[in-house]
Give the backbone structure.
Amino acid sequence: MSIEEKFEFLRKKWVKETGFHSVSHVIYNNKNFREIISLGKSVIPLIIKRYMSDDCMEDWSRALSELLQVNPVKNKSYEYDKIRDDWKRYLRDVYIDEILNE
């Protein structure tokens, strides 16, 4: 199984098992989410592509924070859209050229 296939398999299981939860420790301690993180930096481009898409409903901010060791979120309101906007701005500024050139 390729890294892309494994990521997609785990992502779908994570969404299925946690999509109805709003409690962050349940969502981010899920075994599928933790396994995605354990794949390491190789999944960063896959997460970024997913997170940047308009139809993405998953919150990848925790995964990106863990893998990149950074938190560009300026707004501490914990509103999904504002957090995602801060991440998108950061990713465009710092990572998008790198991702597009792969």
Observations:
- The mean pLDDT is 87.
- Residues 3-100 form one domain.
- The two ends are 20 Å apart (CA to CA).
